[in-house]
Design brief:
Blueprint lengths: L1 H9 L1 H32 L1 H5 L4 E5 L11 E2 L1 H7 L4 E15 L5 E9 L29 E5 L13 E5 L2 E9 L10 E5 H8 L5 E2 L1 E6 L5 H11 L3 E5 H15 L2 H30 L1 H9 L4 H34 L10 H18 L1 H8 L10
Parallel strand pairs: 4-8, 5-7
Antiparallel strand pairs: 1-10, 1-11, 2-9, 3-4, 3-6, 3-10, 5-8, 6-7
Helix pairs in contact: 1-10, 2-7, 2-8, 2-10, 2-11, 8-11, 8-12, 10-11, 10-12
Length: 378
């Protein structure tokens, strides 16, 4: 409406303050939403990267990062279940890392057999008689790191010699998309090397990754495996991924803290917009009284105030997203797992409009209850 735009343009400073408040709220909500989305994605990232249809884990294991040993013989038992095409092993554990300069730190070592998956970060051992393929490791004791941790692990230039748990290792290359959200970097190795680095017994493993045979229903194979191995928990890949995400979000409190910060951004924007829209309404109260005196309906007056709020929301959302996107790219240099899905940006526009609509309620009530005779008073 023309009147709404005139009211906003009349006091540009107040309009600017409203927009700045919305920009700040949008930035905080998008940033915290990206942290939450990235946290959820990273909490099950390595599970999702596997090709396994089914994960066999020790009873009660809550997530990928907190495993418990399984007897190695369970692999043979699993292979005997109808519908099982292949079973591969995976181990994970915290261990010490010594950089070339002698500095030490804790890392999370992940070791898997070749059947873990095409997208799983795994150095491939080149054996005698095989043609060398670009990207394969030429030597045993090879490990991979994520690019986001290269500087921390002093492995920006590869290959480089390091030590893992006082044993020699060689960083062959860096991968991307597997930054750790734990604070301790992920390091990826072949299964046999990881077992040696972690000091795991020859009769123990940690995870069994099962691929089902064509023509078999995954859930049916899972039930048969659970019946064959009652001492374990047998999950579908999606089921174990969901369990890991739930653990990190609910039982650690991390999800609640991130969500609370996003809610705080919404409340900050709500308060700022409410105050400025209310002030604008009070400054133009005589105009609203005039409108009512000449016969304007309450719906028309409500529309003017609501249009002012929504116009502020649209402008603030667009500027807020435009400012937030480059800042998020900058943030990924330090927080590699931060993730901003497209629907989060689109959703923030709707949330901002909702915020502005709620903020206008008090102003609307004040505008529609003003006495028409006010304009005729001396």
């Amino acid at each position: 409406m023309r009147l709404a735009w005139r009211n906003l343009s009349h006091d540009r400073l107040r309009f600017a303050v409203t927009v700045i408040g919305i920009v700040f709220a949008v930035f905080l909500m998008v940033f915290q939403g990206s942290l939450l989305a990235g946290f959820i994605k990273a909490a099950s990232g390595l599970i999702d990267a596997s090709d396994a249809d089914i994960w066999i884990v020790a009873r009660g294991v809550p997530c990928f990062e907190y495993p418990a040993p399984l007897p190695n013989r369970f692999r043979e038992l699993a292979q005997g279940v109808p519908g099982v095409a292949a079973v591969s092993r995976l181990v994970v554990g915290a261990t010490s890392w010594q950089s070339p300069s002698g500095g030490r730190q804790l890392v999370v070592l992940v070791g898997a057999e070749a059947g873990a998956g095409h997208n799983f970060p795994l150095p491939r051992l080149h054996t005698e008689g095989e043609a060398h393929t670009e990207g394969e490791s030429m030597l045993p004791e090879a490990v991979l790191i994520d690019q986001s941790n290269a500087a921390t692990l002093e492995s920006v230039v590869t290959p480089v010699e390091v030590e893992i748990n006082r044993r020699r290792a060689r960083v062959e290359r860096a991968v991307t998309g597997f930054g750790s959200f734990l604070g301790s970097p992920y390091v990826f190795a072949a299964y046999a090397d990881a077992v040696n680095y972690l000091g795991l017994g020859s009769e123990e493993t940690m995870y069994l990754l099962v691929r089902s045979a064509p023509g078999y229903e995954v859930e049916a194979v899972r039930r048969d495996l659970q019946a064959r191995l009652p001492e374990t928990d047998v999950w579908t890949r999606n089921g174990f991924a969901s369990r890991s995400r739930t653990f990190w979000l609910d039982q650690t409190g991390s999800g609640g803290a991130i969500s609370l910060a996003g809610l705080l951004g919404f409340l900050v924007g709500l308060v700022v917009v409410s105050q400025t829209i209310y002030s604008t309404t009070m400054d133009h109260l005589e105009e609203f009284a005039t409108l009512k005196a000449i016969g304007a309906s309450n719906g028309y007056v409500q529309g003017v105030v609501l249009t002012q709020a929504l116009a502020s929301g649209v402008v603030g959302s667009i500027i807020g997203i435009a400012v937030t996107i480059p800042l998020l790219r900058l943030a990924r240099r330090g927080i590699a797992w931060i993730y901003t899905p497209w629907w989060l940006l689109a959703g923030m526009v709707l949330v901002s409009l909702l915020m502005c609509g709620l903020a206008s309620l008090v102003s609307i009530r004040k505008a529609v209850t003003v006495e028409p005779g006010r304009v005729f008073r001396a």
